[in-house]
Amino acid sequence: MSEYSFFGAVEKSFDKAAKFTKWDPGILEQIKQCNAVYRMHFPVKIGDKIEVIKAYRVQHSHHKLPCKGGIRFALSVNLDEVMALAALMTYKCAIVNVPFAGAKGGITIDPKKYTPYDLEKITRRYTSELIKKNFIGPGIDVPAPDYGTGEREMAWIVDTYTSMRPGEIDGLGCVTGKPVTQGGVRGRREATGLGVFFGLREVCNMKDVMDKLGLTTGVEGKRVAVQGLGNVGYHSAKFFQEAGAKIVALAEYEGAIWSKDGLNVDAVVEHRRKTGSILNFPGATNFAKNTDALEMECDILIPAALENVINGENASRVKAKVIGEAANGPLTPEADDILAKKGTLVVPDMYLNAGGVTVSYFEWLKNLSHVRYGRMEKRFTENLNSQILGQIEGLTGKKVNQKEKEFIMHGPEEVDLVRSGLEETMIAATREVMDAWKANPEIPDMRTAAYVVAINKVGTSYAELGIFP
């Protein structure tokens, strides 16, 4: 069997969708290719030794600027993976109408094996390499957190950038996913998981789609299985649980647990913190293999870990009616074909996990505008709502109860506006992809429909730029 190529899988999905578009083959070839690939090796002193660190930054497209995409720290990081993730970022941004082109970065290290001090040295050196080659900047290329990185690493990046580019007024916009105190935005941490929830909730609210799958409309009562309890998996599970769904299975790298009565996500996380494992959670059944959770009876399956977990080998055993791809590339093209034949609805990663980049866009706008969301209108809205309530109470002679009064009077905080913008983005994107699918019955699945939407938008950008005479 030939070795699996993640970028090859993305190209395969692209080619599958390209035939449903009317673009010239040359334009399609340009959209498909990675425009700029930066592969680097740099020395860092770790303890008494000098280690040579391997790292990448790939800018997939320049149809819009800046480019946008996360930086991951993992031993599995290689050029093929970074190119694939950069390409997915281009299509993702296009579908959710975020005006960025796709990029991605990665450093081939196991972050658990380094002290915070050593990680800081590696991150700062990587940033300086990007600055040297003009591969980072608020109008050029804006990284963000990904697997193995978080707010801390983004704070190091912004500090290095602003130190090396003093006086750049929009310097804070060189990276997103920063701590709030360093120009970050409230609501960024849970953004991807919340976006997954909003996207799947919209699909569940489509009666014709649910009827075809033999499911009732709405999220309430749906049995949900989640693979991966990192930031994205945890928040996806939590928002589904809060909306009345039943989390029947959770999986992590040490194994999986299942309960037909439902699992309390926070209680499982607490159990794992105390024992170092999700296994042996009171009232749950253990599975030794974490992949067993993928094959359990459920309505919605959310793979939120790494790529390639559902493939030609196990796809036929997956029983879920809906698969929501919270991770990047969790299904191979072979799995797609098998599941499409079974009638399983796969809601694709390329827009479903766009919550992170959507809220990153809000953070970038905040950094460029130099003002916190809500600062201008919060008090005005509260004062106006207070006046309206007072008038209604005066005219009717009835008092609104305190809880309702607080809800109506509440002016928007930054997190309220961010979540509202994310909800609007995910609902609009879901409908746009579904409409494209319905408009052409020959399109085989939702992923292909999503690619068609993305290719048309990127193609239009290239055509309007006049790049092709």
Cα end-to-end separation: 43 Å
Helix content: 40-55%
Tell me the CATH topology of the domain at 37-182: Rossmann fold
* Overall geometry: globular
Tell me how many strands there are.
Answer: 12
Largest sheet: 7 strands, mixed
CATH class of the domain at 37-182: Alpha Beta
> What's the CATH architecture name of the domain at 37-182?
3-Layer(aba) Sandwich
**Class computed from helices, strands and strand pairing:** alpha/beta
Strand residues, percent: 5-15%
SSE topology string: HHEEEHEHEHHHEHEEHEEEHEHHHHHH
CATH-wise, what's the superfamily of the domain at 37-182? Leucine Dehydrogenase, chain A, domain 1
- Number of continuous helical runs: 16
Helix and strand layout, with pairings?
Blueprint: H1 6-18, H2 25-32, E1 36-46, E2 49-59, E3 67-73, H3 79-95, E4 101-107, H4 116-132, E5 141-145, H5 151-164, H6 191-204, H7 207-213, E6 223-227, H8 231-242, E7 246-252, E8 255-258, H9 265-275, E9 285-287, E10 300-303, E11 322-324, H10 333-342, E12 345-347, H11 349-352, H12 355-369, H13 378-396, H14 402-409, H15 414-439, H16 446-465
Parallel strand pairs: 3-4, 3-5, 6-7, 6-10, 10-11, 11-12
Antiparallel strand pairs: 1-2, 2-4, 7-8, 8-9
Helix pairs in contact: 1-3, 1-16, 3-16, 4-5, 6-8, 6-12, 6-15, 12-15, 15-16
